[in-house]
Design a protein that fits this description.
By secondary structure, the chain is α/β, with parallel strands linked by helices. It contains 8 helices and 9 strands. The relative contact order is 0.14.
Length: 254
């Protein structure tokens, strides 16, 4: 990819570690200024510090609408513009459908759907006012395409994000703003490496012979928010090593 993001400004939520952090790394490597959001203040500040002066940490709850507005406003005050938004923050709460508690359901929807929707709204308003287009990217999941045990609410939220991206094509295309979605499959992150069987299990289940790295997902994101993808909008790119093509599930037998 030949993109140079000098002078461009991005917001990435849920970026203190894992996929979001890898996205920030790559954007900064290509010259962008980045606002790094995470709900954990120490994690956000430590991550931003490691990425240098072009990365501004703004910790806070990406599901909270006043905070979303504050984050966008602070980005504009600091950097003067907003060109790219990656709504990566999300919450996974496993649970049996028959006993899944309402508080878990609504928390998943509040962050995964509400946070994404209202961040896209605030960012698109700014991009429209700038009059120079922009790129918005949502993080979905293969669970929005293939059922997983105990993830009914989460999978539902991720499938809805993909429909949101398609719907926003109507509203955003007249302003030159693209909106797409990346759907990662099994990925090695700080969270999944804590499970000693994760890599072995998903290396067996994934046709390409391994789970994704965070760089694999970040590469797909960087392409979709780049000028090279300026005629791609309303689409979902699944990055799963071929898993959804055959969809073998992990052994869930007790």
């Amino acid at each position: 990819m030949t993109t140079n993001w000098q002078g461009k400004v991005a917001i990435v939520t849920g970026a203190g570690q894992g996929i979001g952090f890898a996205i920030c790394q790559q954007l900064i490597a290509y010259g962008a200024s980045v606002v790094l959001n995470d709900s954990d203040p120490q994690l956000a500040k430590r991550a931003a510090s490691s990425l240098g002066p072009n990365c501004l940490p703004i910790p806070g709850d990406a599901a909270d609408i006043p905070f979303i507005r504050h984050m966008v406003d602070t980005t504009i005050r600091t950097f003067g513009r907003l060109d790219i938004v990656v709504a990566n923050a999300g919450l996974t709460l496993f649970g049996d459908f028959f006993t899944y508690p309402p508080e878990s359901f609504f928390r998943v929807m509040q962050l995964n759907l509400g946070g994404t929707f209202f961040l896209a709204q605030a960012a698109a308003q700014q991009m429209r006012d700038q009059g120079q287009g922009g790129s918005i990217l949502f993080t979905s999941s293969v669970t929005g395409h293939q059922a997983h045990k105990d993830l009914a609410a989460y999978g539902m939220s991720k499938a809805a994000l993909e429909m949101l991206a398609r719907s926003l094509v109507i509203d955003l295309s007249p302003y030159g703003i693209t909106v797409n979605t990346v759907a990662p499959g099994a990925t090695m992150t700080e969270r999944t490496t804590g499970d000693p069987s994760y890599e072995k299990t998903w290396s067996t289940l994934t046709p390409m012979g391994r789970p994704a790295t965070v760089q694999d997902i970040a590469n797909a994101v960087l392409f979709l928010v780049s000028p090279e993808a300026r005629h791609i909008t309303g689409q979902t790119l699944i990055v799963d090593g071929g898993w959804t093509a055959i969809s073998p599930g992990p052994d869930t037998t007790p």
